Amino acid sequence: MKEDLIKVNNLKTYFYADEEVSKAVDNISFRIKKGETVCIVGESGCGKSVTSLSIMRLINEPGKIVSGEIIYDNKDLLKMRENDIRNIRGNEIAMIFQEPMTSLNPVFTIGQQLIEGIMEHTLISKKEANNKAIELINIVGLPRAEEIIKSYPHELSGGMLQRIMIAIALSCNPKLIIADEPTTALDVTIQAQILDLLRNIKAEYNTSILFITHDLGVVAEMADYVIVMYAGKIIEEAPVLELFKNPKHQYTMGLLKSKPIIGQRRERLYSIKGQVPDLSELKESCYFSDRCEKCMDICKTKMPKFISESNSHKTACWLYEEGVIYE
Q: What pLDDT is attached to residue 1?
């Protein structure tokens, strides 16, 4: 059995504006094992990206990590000093952001931005760092590395920039890569190449990946284990095959039904009615109750418990009690 690399326990991250509190991440717990890919899936506004930024300790005002633990290497990242967390951030835990064009500095060359990260975390010379940067560009499958290293971000395509972001993430051989929707703005062909690249990196270096997406097709390709988030809560989690074959929560079922299937023609794709609730106006009820096709009276008055049907498949839904569904 694989060891845990990182454990998130009862994490709460809230955003404060005037007198309102938005519970972007509300008391969630999960773990990532060594060499495992965990996908967090859900609609926009469900707390996926805030979860990843909380792990990286990159939450700024008006946001605040209110409570919880993030245990890595027997240390709580939330209790570490800023200097100590900087040594881990980018070195042992790296992040690939959603929009590479806004993540890279437009006034510095690709080489300067790669070399800076390498020299920040390693004790090598600038010449060695330059050679390492060229090697990384080759690893992520870009030709003409010596030319690319002298280029500015605006001179490269979106797909090339995303590969550069992966190269930056790989520069210090991290144990965990957090990928926040890294293929969202890319066409299908380039998306497939980026996913292949991440799978190869995982296989070669035994790197753990936390992959954040709203695309269930990507989940099917990438995930070992899936966490479904809704309105700041984890509402279902399971191994990927189990989740696709036997989804439990009505929200998960809705996500799966809304995905187009090759070979099936439909006049209109299924869509879940309504939208994610305002996170500053949440009530003591099931947050999905207003959109659920099987909503019961108790759903509107009480938060459901997290039920374990097995050690690996859990769901938070009032339709279930002790693993039995009521029709």
A: 67
Peptide bond into 62 cis (omega under 30): yes
**Contact predicate 71/7, CB 8 Å:** yes
Residue type, 222: M
Spatial separation of the C-alpha atoms in residues 181 and 288, rounded to whole Å: 24
Could you tell me the sign of the dihedral formed by the alpha carbons of 113, 116, 121, 125, in that order? positive
Euclidean distance between CA atoms 179 and 161, whole angstroms: 14
What's the pLDDT tens digit per position in 289-303? 999 989 999 999 999
CA atoms within a 13 Å half-sphere pointing along the CA-CB vector of 307:
16
Q: Which of 288, 281, 290 is nearest to 317 (CA)?
A: 288
Closest residue by Cα to residue 312 from 239, 211, 250, 209: 239
pLDDT per position as a tens digit, 44-103: 889 999 999 999 999 999 999 999 999 998 999 999 999 899 889 988 999 998 777 788
324, burial (CB in 10 Å: exposed 0-12, middle 13-18, buried 19+):
exposed
Would you call 64 helix, strand, or coil by DSSP?
strand
Average pLDDT, rounded, for the chain = 89
Q: Hey, what amino acid is at 26?
A: D
Containing 83, the helix (H) or strand (E) segment is helix 82-88
CA angle, corner 246, sides to 257 and 3, nearest 5?
120
The residues near 43 (Cβ < 8 Å, ≥ 6 apart) are: 214, 230, 275, 276
Verdict on whether the full-model pTM lies above 0.85: yes
Cα–chain-centroid distance for residue 43? 12
Q: Where are the alpha helices (DSSP H) in the chain?
A: 48-55, 82-88, 100-103, 110-121, 126-139, 145-148, 158-170, 188-205, 216-222, 240-245, 250-257
